[in-house]
Structure formats: structure tokens, C-alpha cells
Amino acid sequence: xxxxxxxxxxxxxxxxxxxxxxxxxxxxxxxxxxxxxxxxxxxxxxxxxxxxxxxxxxxxxxxxxxxxxxxxxxxxxxxxxxxxxxxxxxxxxxxxxxxxxxxxxxxxxxxxxxxxxxxxxxxxxxxxxxxxxxxxxxxxxxxxxxxxxxxxxxxxxxxxxxxxxxxxxxxxxxxxxxxxxxxxxxxxxxxxxxxxxxxxxxxxxxxxxxxxxxxxxxxxxxxxxxxxxxxxxxxxxxxxxxxxxxxxxxxxxxxxxxxxxxxxxxxxxxxxxxxxxxxxxxxxxxxxxxxxxxxxxxxxxxxx
Length: 304
Prior knowledge:
Helix content is about 50%, strand content about 5%. Helix 5 (about 190-195) links the parallel strand 3 and strand 4. The protein contains nine helices and five strands. Strands 1-2-5-3-4 form a five-stranded mixed beta sheet. Helix 6 (about 210-225) packs across helix 7 (about 240-250). The chain is elongated and about 75 Å long. It has about 300 residues and is α/β, with parallel strands linked by helices. The chain has helices at about 25-40, 40-60, 70-115, 150-160, 190-195, 210-225, 240-250, 265-275, 285-300, and strands at about 125, 140-145, 165-170, 200, 230-235. The chain has two domains: about 20-115, no CATH class; about 125-304, Protein-Tyrosine Phosphatase, Chain A. The two termini are about 40 Å apart.
């Protein structure tokens, strides 16, 4: 079976891709980037917004580019096009915009870490650190969406030397089944092609995970860790996937927490995960969902 074309996987090699050193390779990458851009509603939304901004500024500083009538018509058409794109692709545009932001942030932090070695690092993924006396034989990783265009699938294979790992995605379908102008995610079909177990729980960004789905994902992590490493991710590895791992800690790793009478299980679990990945963010509705999950665990009202 041939590898998916958008990944261009070389299954016989576990090494990271070499640096671009030929004009042909540069042309191929430029072509792929342009194809992704022209197929993306985010690209056209930025074009509309950029043109609107440019024309508006030119009017303010009295630079005549178009006749007044043509200018008004153009501004109206661009405004309607921008509104149409937002209305019909708001989730997709928000996804690609935020993905662009984290890629820029990752690049900025990488540069700053070289200039200022003691600056805070924001990794694409982090390993959850358990105590030395833990019986955990495999690694649990929390991170952002793996991008084929950044070879994250190969990076994970290299990091996890025996290459035996599974993936839990907390994403809506459009987030990892479509190419975008800011990058191409590793598709579920790609994980299957690599014979890597993959499970997906569909939740919108910043939304709480319902108790049944949370417990389903928690049990998946627990079962997979008995046999292999596990990579849990959402879009940026801060909210949905963090909530899932916090749920796992609450159910199966309470011995890792410094629990005392009167202490809050949820907050202790959040603090534990934050030590490994400082940028996690659990909003109020997600925290309430975790509190509800804690109640069900203590009352044994959910199938364990």
C-alpha cells in the first residue's frame, strides 16, 4: 500500500527529514503551500480583510487609488465576502488562525530561548512527569495537534524509540481531516497507515468534555498505557487535551497527588499536570465539568 500523498511518508526511515537543499525540493514545498492556501477559506478571509484595511487607510490619508464610486462598490463587495466567509467557515477560520498563532509563538520562543537561555519554553508537546516510584512503564505525552508539514509523526516515532504508541485526539473532524493554509495535520487515516492505534473524541475548542466521553477517553489512556506510550492532543495542547489528562490523573493516579482532607481533587490534578506543561488553561465550565466528574468517581455512579 502506498503512503498517503499529502504526508509523503517514508516508512523505511525513522529519521527526521533533511534540510531543504535543492531547488526542486523548494519548488515542491512552495507549490504545496500555495495549494493549501488557495483551498483555504482563511486565506481568502485574510485577503478580504487586508484589502479592506489597505483601501480604508488609503482613503484616510487621501491617496486616490480608485474612483469614489468604484471604491464604495469594492469596499461593499469585500465586506460582504468577508462576512460570508466568516458566517460559513467560522470554526475553520478560527482553527487555522489560532494554529498560525501557535506556530508563530513556537518560532518566537525558539529564537528567544537561544538568545535568553533562561526564558520560558513552550514546547509543542510535553511528557507528564510522574514520581520516581511510579509503576508507569510508558510515557504519557500532552501536546498540540501533530502536523504532517512539520513531520511531528516522525518526531514522535523517534522520541518514542520503540515506536509503540497510540494517539488520542480531542478534536472536531474538520480539525484533522482537512489541509489548511497554516499546515497539514496528520490525518486519522495516516495513523492507521502507520499501524498506530488512534481514537478521536469530538469536542469544540474551549468546550467541556461531557462526563461519558471524558470517562471513555480516560479509560482509553489507561488501557493503552499498559502496552504502549500515549500521545494526547487537541489543537494547541492547552485546554481539551489537558482536561482529558487531568481526568486520567483524578481517576487512576490519585497516589501522585498530595491529597489531604479538605483538599480539592480537581485543583490538585490541575496543578500536577501544569508542572509538566505550564501553559495549560482550564476555563470555568471545564473546571465545573471536572468537579462533576470527581463527584461521579467518588460516588461510583459511573462505569469504571
